[in-house]
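Appendix B. One record, verbatim.
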Amino acid sequence: MTPERFVALYWLAAAAALAWLLYLLDPVLTPFLAAGILSYILQPLVARSAKWRFMSRTSATALVMTMLFAAMVALLLILLPLLRYESGMLMTKLPELLDIVRQRLLPLLEQYLGVTVQWDVATFKELLSEHWQNAGGVSASLLPWLSSSGSTLIAVVMNLLLIPLVMFYLLRDWPQLLERIDGIIPRRWHAKTVEITGEVDVVLAEFLRGQLSVMVLMSVFYALALMLTGMQFALPIGIVSGMLVFVPYLGAIIGLTLATMVALTQFDSFTGMLLVWGVFAAGQLLEGVVVTPKLVGDRIGLHPLGVIFALLAFGQLFGFFGVLLALPISAMLLVGLRHFKGWYLTSALYRK
């Protein structure tokens, strides 16, 4: 066996062993992966803050993490009062909504679909009231199950507490970590590795800028479109729906839920409800087919069809997290393919 083949097999075996180790440590790695992604996003801000006078790297890290925590608290302060108010309004108006369903919706179902539904509103209200009053008993019956799942709950809480801790050390020691990684790269591969990682870093930065543009644009769209329907709380619901589009489907689900609750308590007919649903349907179509492919795909060098294919393919293969990481991973693969193409065009295989 030639030395080159031995080295290739050595690295292949090392890569396989690393992949197997990562698979075994998957539950433990989740908070580290989340902290690593957030640290990569916030690292440029920490680096700029550390250049300020009388600002050390540790102080800059603490400042940036405090700003992130404040932003999350602000988002909760927008959501929680709105949820509490609308939930109370919905329960107050529920009997009226049931009467609307009986008087307007059921005749339409019978007229156009030939479906006859027996609807006893009084019985339904009585059952709802009984179940609502017995909610405490249901909660008490669930306590044994909750106690049996206590270890899982503790693990989730520990992971949530571990993320900011890992983030702090990653952000504070980022330059030293990069130096150590740089020092273990084989020297004959060093130049090419640095070149590729530099290109990947540029592409990921463009992805983050593009994603931020998508969030701002979709926030404006949802807020304005919901205002045109005449719905109350259009501005906070639009902002929340747009800011959460970076997590696939989360922004649309939360926004649609909040908007539906407001529409149920505000509009007297289903026309307003249909208009609200139409806004979110149009928003999903606009964001998935036009905005994300243009603002994100163009920045990272992916064709709009490539963006759509990447989202669908990674979602099929890896589920929710696949959709979340589809575009940045595709961007990194695209950089590798460019370098592979350059090698291939100069190889003997192509020239022959």
